[in-house]
Design a protein that fits this description.
Layout (H helix, E strand, L loop, with lengths): L1 E4 L6 E6 L2 E5 L21 H14 L5 E2 L2 E2 L5 H19 L7 E4 L5 E2 L1 H6 L2 E4 L2 E4 L4 E4 L1 H21 L17 H14 L3 H14 L1 H4 L9 E3 L2 H13 L8 E5 L5 E6 L4 E4 L5 E6 L14 H20 L8 E9 L5 E7 L8 E7 H5 L18
Helix pairs in contact: 1-2, 2-4, 2-6, 4-5, 4-6, 5-6
Length: 385
């Protein structure tokens, strides 16, 4: 099956179309394509980088698991990737699931459970051992359905994202049980089980088999798209740099009766305090700076940063915070093949005595979580262009 780069205007993800897998991803991602936009999934780090990207793209969605109940999310389709990945990893780590529990009975056709048989009572009559009860254990028929469901879900997962794991071979089963029947069995077992791993597994299987809600078509393939990557990008930046308390200034309205009401808060994406006691007010922008100045933050964003910087100066002075050396304002944009953080431009406005610095950060390293510890003090403070 061919894997091809697909340019989508507003969303990232993948879809199946005409025996091809079409993938939409950011230009800054480190994925090699040939002249026809075909992706060799085995080349370089293509597979690893795409897996990490999809993990970030879909795992920011709502969690499927809460206690032992399935959380039905409006983002059900995006959660399918999480379920596909969970089932494949469960198989790679533990194989097909073993029996959850056994039924104990007096049916001698099954294997005797000697411990329970002895516990039921033992008597000696005429030098012979007589048991009060012969107790045997047999596999719960419900477990056969769970195993069947797991294999079916595994095969569906392989159809959709097996190419991310270099797995194409499915496990053979006779597909003669409807999803509705399997869902009925799984939901019945979900009520009874308290082992957290089994709760996770059943919930993910329900998510995959519930085709009325999850978007799977008759070929068991699904289109998984996400149109808010900018929000994920901001969260990734904040996860690395946010280490100072959130301060949200706001304006106030006062009507003619003298009643005051707060206007909306002014919120930076995050605030970073470096080891030199400098404050960095950061606005993460998922813009393509390679598009020239069209890809840079415009005046409204620049003005907001300047206003927040002026407010922060007042806040520090009013509250007698004396361990702050400087306040710096910056934008962080995605880039490619960058070792750390790269200064690319500086913004100014005549009415403000300050600069705003624009940086690029390597998007692939950001997604791969390679920035274990990074801070602005490792770079010289940029000079004005």
């Amino acid at each position: 099956m061919e894997i091809k780069k697909w340019k989508s205007e507003n969303s990232f993800g993948y879809k199946h179309e005409n025996s091809q897998i079409l993938i939409s991803f950011p230009e800054e991602l480190d994925i090699e394509c040939d002249s026809n936009d075909l992706i060799n999934i085995n080349k370089k780090n293509n597979r690893k980088n795409l897996r990490n990207f999809f993990n970030v793209l879909y795992k920011k969605k709502t969690n499927l698991i809460k206690s032992n109940k399935l959380i039905h999310s409006s983002d059900h389709i995006n959660n399918l990737f999480v379920s596909f990945e969970w089932i494949i990893n469960a198989f790679l780590n533990n194989g097909i699931p073993k029996t959850f529990n056994y039924i104990f009975s007096n049916n001698l056709k099954n294997k005797i459970n000697w411990k329970k048989t002895f516990d039921s009572g033992v008597y000696f009559i005429n030098k012979k051992i007589v048991f009060n009860k012969i107790i045997c254990k047999q596999k719960n028929k419900l477990d056969d359905m769970i195993t069947y469901s797991f294999i079916k879900c595994f095969n569906i997962a392989i159809e959709n994202i097996g190419w991310l794991y270099n797995i194409s071979k499915k496990i053979y089963i006779q597909d003669n049980v409807s999803n509705d029947i399997l869902l009925c069995y799984l939901k019945k077992e979900l009520v009874k089980t308290y082992k957290i791993e089994n709760i996770h597994m059943i919930n993910h299987m329900i998510n995959i088999l519930d085709s009325k809600n999850n978007g799977l078509n008759e070929n068991n393939s699904v289109t998984l798209l996400h149109n808010e990557f900018w929000n994920i990008y901001e969260n990734l930046i904040c996860k690395i740099f946010s280490n100072y308390k959130e301060i949200n200034p706001h304006a106030k309205w006062k009507n003619i009766e003298g009643i005051e009401k707060d206007a909306s808060n002014l919120r930076p994406d995050c605030i970073h305090k470096d080891k030199q006691n400098n404050i960095w007010i950061i606005d993460a922008k998922y813009y393509h700076s390679g598009d020239g100045y069209k890809g840079m933050p415009q005046t409204s964003d620049i003005q907001k940063q300047f206003i927040y910087g002026e407010w922060m100066k007042e806040y520090i002075n009013k509250n007698n915070i004396d361990n702050i050396n400087n306040i710096y304002l910056c934008f962080i944009l995605p880039g490619k093949n960058i070792n750390s953080i790269k200064h690319i431009s500086t913004a100014t406005m005549e009415i403000f005595n300050n600069n705003i610095y624009a940086y690029q950060i390597d998007l692939q390293k950001l997604i791969n979580n390679e920035y274990n510890e990074i801070s602005f003090e490792y770079l010289p403070i940029p000079v004005q262009f």
